[in-house]
Design goal:
BirA Bifunctional Protein, domain 2; four-stranded mixed sheet
Length: 249
């Protein structure tokens, strides 16, 4: 008898600020630890924000705060792996909230599968993408096209990937991306010399993700996700539940 694949709820959230998305991830991680069955893939965009991972250094921010304020860019310290990166409109951000099964409990394998998901999806658009064994993420001949950073707690994942689709790449002039000097960044739009429909990219990425991780893909509305979470906290959830180390700077 074939055992049905584990369910993966893919949720498109549109544009959501970084802090709200982080709080949602934390709620979902706690729900998974409390027995929530479906895994979740959040697909979204952020308003302009620079984030610093737990291995990062603000020295890789190369402009003063006044420049960030003038361009409407927030900044935030977080607990994902990696260094400094940019999120903004035109970028597809994917946050998988998975409970890894015993045979999946290998962080290196998990990261390589995330990369492979995007490599396969980009191939469908005619973009040749690859890994660089020295650095995490997805690369093209024109530069890095996707950054990654994750956090695992009791084998429940959060954070994930950020793929430049139609991103304004001038924002990367504000930082040394991922702390790697001398490496450029690119986007699907730049490589293909045309704008790309972000929603189509989200759908293709979710399909590849489900195949690679052996999940049964189910598209769900954000309202269904919030209803699933609503009954799991008698005392409610707010920013006070977030660890003090995760905050805007």
């Amino acid at each position: 008898m074939t055992v049905p694949a584990k369910s993966l709820w893919a949720i498109r959230l549109g544009r959501i600020d970084y802090e709200s998305a982080l709080d949602l991830q934390l709620r979902l991680c706690e729900a998974k630890k409390r027995g929530m069955e479906p895994d979740v893939l959040l697909l979204l965009e952020h308003p302009p924000v620079i984030t610093l991972g737990r291995n990062g250094n603000w020295h890789n921010l190369v402009v003063p705060d006044e420049v960030l304020q003038a361009r409407g860019v927030a900044r935030f310290e977080t607990d994902r792996g990696g260094d400094i990166t940019f999120h903004g409109p035109g970028q597809l951000v994917g946050y998988p909230i998975l409970r890894l099964e015993p045979g999946e409990r290998d962080v290196h394998l998990y990261m390589r599968r995330l990369e492979e998901c995007l490599i396969r999806m980009l191939a469908a658009y005619g973009i040749r993408a690859y890994r660089d064994p020295r650095y995490t993420g997805v690369w093209t001949g024109d530069g890095k096209i996707a950054a990654m950073g994750v956090h695992l707690s009791r084998w429940v994942t959060r954070h994930g990937f950020a793929l430049n689709v139609n991103t304004d790449l001038s924002y990367y002039d504000l930082i040394i991306p991922c702390g790697i000097a001398g490496k450029g960044v690119t986007s699907m739009c730049r490589v293909l010399a045309r704008p790309i429909e972000l929603g189509d990219v989200a759908v293709r990425a979710a399909l590849e993700f489900a195949v690679l991780f052996g999940r049964r893909l189910e598209w769900r509305a954000a309202e269904e996700l919030h209803a699933e979470l609503a009954g799991r906290w008698e005392d409610g959830w707010s920013g006070k539940n977030r660890p003090a180390s995760l905050q805007a700077r």
